[in-house]
Design brief:
Strand order of the largest sheet: 1-2-3-12-13-14-15-16
Distance between the termini: 42 Å
Helix content: 25-40%
Strand content: 15-25%
Structural class: alpha/beta
Radius of gyration: 27 Å
C-alpha cells in the first residue's frame, strides 16, 4: 500500500518512481537574491494544488498493496513511488514513531536487499560490531548503507561499536576444559603453561595485581563464580562458589574492582583509526569504567565530527561515575548483557531506570540494548516478557531500543525489526505514555538560556495551537537534542545544512532530519522564503496535509551559532505569507484566488 505521506511528498516534489541521492534540497525562495513579494503567495497556491490532489487521492479506490495507479483514487502514476509499495502497510507507521530503532548488522543482514528491508521496517541507525569481521567488510557495509540512504533520500545513522578490553583465561591441556565443583580451590596466574584442574593462566597482569581477598571473579558470562582468598606475586588463589565447566579462552569479569587498564586495546586503537576514515556518525566504547576512559577516546578522535557513546556495563560506571560519564558523552547505551553479569540480575531494571533518568536530566540520548527480543533469533514471535521488556524501556523514556543477534544472526531479522516497531507504535499511542512524558516535561531541568526559553515555549505553543510539527533550524544538532529532550507531543523536524548533523540526529527521540542548502547570512526577506521551504519539508514528510495546518518554527538569527536560538514563528501550511482558515480540502475559498490577488 502506498501511504498518503508518500503521495504528499511526491506530489509536491513532482517526483517519479525513482529516488534522488541525499543532497541538500534546493530552495525555491532563494533563487533570487531577494524574494519577490509574490513568492509566498505563489508558493501557497502551488501547495494548495498539491493538497487538492491529496484530497482527491483520499476519495476512494483500492489501497491493496501493489494495486495499479488507476485503482488508487485516480492518482497519476507519476505520483506513486515504486519503492515504498514493496513494503505494504508498514511504511506508514515507520515514519510516525518517536522512539528510534538500532539494528546490528551481521551475516543475516549484510546484503543491500536485507538492509533495505530493515530500514523500511523501522531501523534508524545501523550498528557495526567491530568484535567480528574485518575492515574490508565494514567499509563495504558502510558503502551499502550510504547507497540505501541516497536511494531513499533519508538520513541514516551508522554506529561503529568497538570491542573493548575483554579479559579471557588461557588454554587448558584438555580441549574440553575441566569441571570445577563448589568449595574447590583454583588458581589464576601468569604462567603460560597449559591449564589443569587446579590452575590456568590469566594473561592480564594488571588484573592479577589488583585483585585482593574478597574480590569476585565471574567466568563464562557469570555461569561460574569464584572469590579470591589469597593473592601473591603473579597469582591469585580462589575458592569456587558456583561450579561448572571452564574451558579455553572463556571470558572473565571482575565486578568488584576498577581495572587499571586502558579501555582501548591495541585492536580498538587500530579499529578507531580505520573508523575515522569511514563515513560513520557514532562510535561506541565498551566496558567504560570511569570518565577518563571516554576522554581518552575523545582525544584520539580529535576534531572529527564523530559522536561518542559510552556503553555502561561495569558497576563502577554506574555506582561511582554516572553523572560525569553522561556529561562527557553525546549518547549512552545501557548494555544489559555484561551489566547483568557483573551486577545482581534484580538490580538491572532499577539501574536501567537510573541511567535513563540521568540522561534525561542532562539531555543526552540513551539507548537500551541486549536481549530485547532474544527468542526471535530462532522464533518468528517474541515471548510476552520480551514484548513487555521493550515496552518498559519505552515507558522509561529511552530515546532508542536496539537489536543485537536478532538482526545480525537471527533467522527473522526483518520480522524482529517490524515487531519492535509495532511495540513502539502501540506504546506511544497509549495515554500512559503521553502522561509520563508530560509529567517529565513539567519538571525537566533547564539551563536558564534563551535556547531553553524558546524550546520550552515552542512545545507549549505547538500544543496550544494544535500544530502538526515543530521545525528547528540547527547547525550541529544541539538545539534539536534539547527540543527532543522536552518530549513534545508533535514531531520535531530538524533542518540543517550539515549531512553529518542530520545523520547523528537519527538517534534522537521524535526527530526527523532534512538537509537544506542555504546561506547562513540571510536577509529578512530571504528568511521568509526559508520558512516557506521549511513548511514544504514538513509537507513532504507527511506531517502537514492541509493549507490550514500549522507548524511552529524556531531558529537562531544569525544562523551558524551553535545552541543560539532567539526566534519563534507560527507558520501555516500554505506558507509564511498566508494564514489558515482560508481554504478547504478542495482548494481556495477566498473570493480572490492567490494569483489574482497577487496582481
Amino acid at each position: 500500500m502506498v501511504s498518503l505521506r508518500t503521495i504528499v511528498a511526491l506530489a509536491l516534489l513532482g517526483s517519479t518512481s525513482s529516488f534522488t541521492p541525499i543532497t541538500p534540497l534546493p530552495l525555491r525562495g532563494m533563487r533570487s537574491k531577494v524574494m519577490h513579494t509574490s513568492t509566498s503567495t505563489m508558493m501557497a497556491h502551488k501547495q494548495t494544488q498539491a493538497f487538492t490532489q491529496i484530497a482527491q487521492a483520499r476519495g476512494g479506490g483500492s489501497t491493496t498493496p501493489g494495486a495499479p495507479a488507476a485503482a488508487m483514487g485516480g492518482v497519476p502514476a507519476s505520483l506513486i513511488a515504486s519503492e515504498p509499495s514493496k513494503t505494504g502497510a508498514h511504511v506508514g507507521e515507520r515514519w510516525t514513531k518517536n522512539t528510534k530503532q538500532l539494528a546490528t548488522v551481521g551475516p543475516a543482514s549484510s546484503t543491500y536487499a536485507m538492509l533495505e528491508k530493515l530500514f523500511v521496517a523501522g531501523v534508524d541507525v545501523f550498528r557495526l560490531n567491530f568484535s567480528h569481521g574485518g575492515h574490508e567488510e565494514k567499509a563495504e557495509l558502510v558503502g551499502i548503507i550510504r547507497q540505501l540512504e541516497a536511494n531513499y533520500n533519508h538520513p541514516i545513522g551508522i554506529l561503529a561499536d568497538l570491542q573493548g578490553p575483554k579479559q579471557r583465561v588461557g588454554v587448558f591441556e584438555s580441549e574440553t576444559g575441566v569441571v570445577l565443583v563448589e568449595g574447590q580451590k583454583f588458581r589464576f596466574d601468569l604462567d603460560a603453561e597449559l591449564g589443569t584442574a587446579t590452575r590456568v593462566q590469566l594473561p592480564h597482569p594488571e588484573i592479577v595485581g589488583t585483585l585482593r581477598p574478597g574480590d569476585s571473579l565471574l567466568i563464562d558470562d557469570g555461569k561460574m563464580r569464584m572469590t579470591v582468598i589469597e593473592n601473591g606475586e603473579g597469582y591469585v588463589e580462589c575458592t569456587v562458589d558456583v561450579g561448572g565447566k571452564i574451558s579455553n579462552r572463556k571470558g572473565v569479569n571482575t565486578p568488584t574492582i576498577v581495572t587499571p587498564i586502558s579501555p582501548l586495546t591495541k585492536k580498538d586503537r587500530e579499529d578507531l583509526e580505520f573508523i575515522k576514515t569511514l563515513d560513520v556518525d557514532w562510535v561506541a566504547l565498551s566496558f567504560v569504567q570511569k570518565p577518563g576512559d571516554i576522554q581518552e577516546m575523545k582525544d584520539l578522535i580529535g576534531d572529527l565530527p564523530l559522536k561518542v557513546m559510552a556503553k555502561l556495563e561495569k558497576p563502577s560506571a554506574v555506582t561511582e561515575y554516572l553523572e560525569d560519564i553522561v556529561a562527557l558523552c553525546d549518547g549512552i547505551m545501557v548494555a544489559r548483557g555484561d551489566l547483568g553479569v557483573e551486577m545482581a540480575v534484580e538490580d538491572v531494571p532499577v539501574i536501567q531506570k537510573r541511567i535513563i533518568r540521568e540522561c534525561q536530566r542532562q539531555g543526552t540520548p540513551v539507548v537500551v540494548a541486549t536481549q530485547m527480543l532474544e527468542s526471535m533469533i530462532e522464533s518468528p514471535t517474541p515471548t510476552r516478557a520480551e514484548a513487555s521488556d521493550v515496552a518498559t524501556a519505552i515507558y522509561d523514556g529511552a530515546d532508542a531500543v536496539m537489536l543485537s543477534a536478532e538482526s545480525a544472526a537471527g533467522q527473522y531479522p526483518e520480522l524482529a525489526v517490524q515487531t519492535q516497531q509495532k511495540i513502539i507504535s502501540r506504546v506511544e499511542r497509549s495515554p500512559y505514555y503521553r502522561d509520563a512524558n508530560d509529567r517529565y516535561s513539567r519538571h525537566r531541568p533547564t539551563e536558564g538560556t534563551s535556547t531553553d526559553a524558546i524550546t520550552i515555549s515552542a512545545r507549549s505553543v505547538a500544543q496550544t495551537v494544535g500544530a502538526k510539527a515543530i521545525i528547528v533550524f540547527t547547525n550541529s544538532g544541539t538545539t534539536v537534542v534539547r527540543a527532543s529532550n522536552g518530549r513534545p507531543s508533535v514531531p520535531i523536524i530538524a533542518i540543517t545544512t550539515e549531512a553529518k548533523a542530520a545523520r547523528s540526529l537519527s538517534l534522537a527521540w521524535g526527530v526527523y532530519s532534512q538537509v537544506l542548502d542555504f546561506n547562513h547570512d540571510l536577509a529578512a526577506q530571504e528568511f521568509e522564503a526559508l520558512l516557506g521551504d521549511a513548511v514544504t519539508v514538513a509537507t513532504n514528510k507527511g506531517f502537514v496535509t492541509s493549507p490550514n495546518d500549522l507548524v511552529v518554527v524556531t531558529a537562531g538569527i544569525p544562523f551558524g551559532i551553535p545552541g543560539a536560538v532567539n526566534t519563534l514563528r507560527i507558520v501555516s501550511g500554505a506558507g509564511p505569507g498566508s494564514w489558515p482558515r482560508c481554504y478547504d480540502s478542495n482548494g481556495w475559498t477566498l473570493k480572490k484566488k492567490p494569483a489574482e490577488s497577487a496582481n
